[in-house]
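Z., the sequence and structure:
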Amino acid sequence: MPYGDISQISGTDAVAFNHIISDPKLLNAAMRGRYILALLLGLPNAGGYRAGELRRDFSFDKLEKDSGAQIELPFFSGQSTPRPLTYATASNVTPTNVTAKPYNVVLPWYEVVDNVDVPGVYMRRAGNDKGKIENVMKMFGTQLVEGYLQMMHNGLMWTALPSSSNFGGLRALISDGVSPGEAAYAQYGTGVGVLDRSAVGNEGFRSLVVKNAGAFSRIKLASWQQTLRDRGGMASIGIMNSADHAALQVQYSEKSLIRTPYDDLISKIGAPYFQDNGTLFIPDSVLPSGTLLLIDPEDFFFRGKAYDAMPDKPKVLEGETSWVHLQNNEDLWRAKIIYSFQTGIKPNSIYRQGKIEGLTF
């Protein structure tokens, strides 16, 4: 590859860069310790797994190549009420007391951009040697992947609702909109597609939220689990701060409270875990101490926007990549990725999730 040959670096080598940033070894290394993000994206450290291959209660709903200007989530408010059918006239078969109405929650795409700059000296040393070019790209591509995944991990555990400037964080998606401190999360959606969880009549769209939960006990846990199951959920995964998880796991082990069977599917993401009453507990380094999220991953989703201009797209960093030579002020080769994605929760599933705060162990 001759120095300054933009046509080559923006063509063949741009495709090579796409392959590198979707390299399973690179991604698996970058995913270490980001267990819930690994479940969301389908990237276990052990390799060989894709989203949807976990059993249903552990699998996030994932669509890598969505399209359109926005994401629309249809849902029903209310229920239809069956009534006795009379045969006096044919018109009697027309229901008159249907209260279930279809609505849409509308979410915008969250679009981000990132660059990785490679000093020209590295590219000149590589010359026309494709192997050396790939090694240079791999070294700087690691930086790009790490940056994206750390941003996504932080955001997933943060308190932002889906918008054009944020993607959905679990602590905001799981809310009742009315408990102390929850009013900021009442409005789910944007524009003409907003679900107000705090509104009278929308009680069926409020998560289980417990504030100032106090000292952890298995009796409290069983009560929260049963509440969610009465609502139609399974509380299949419990997400905890890493230190809280370690402390609770020690308590369980010392008292021989539970016997956790080996779970090959969860083990593939490399997470330490234990199980109690059907909930599998996984640690997270970003989630604040004292917080426990009881969720059914199948009720949440990840959407990545497809870019038709890219014939060879990265598996996870699904975006539009350009790889150009800058020679105005600095001698740099720059790889840029524009990536649009969003996370959220299916509206009729909000009721089945739990957020417990103020726990001590």
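The first strand starts at residue 61 and ends at 66. Confidence is low (pLDDT under 50) at residues 1-12, 44-56, 308-320.

Let me know what you think.
H.
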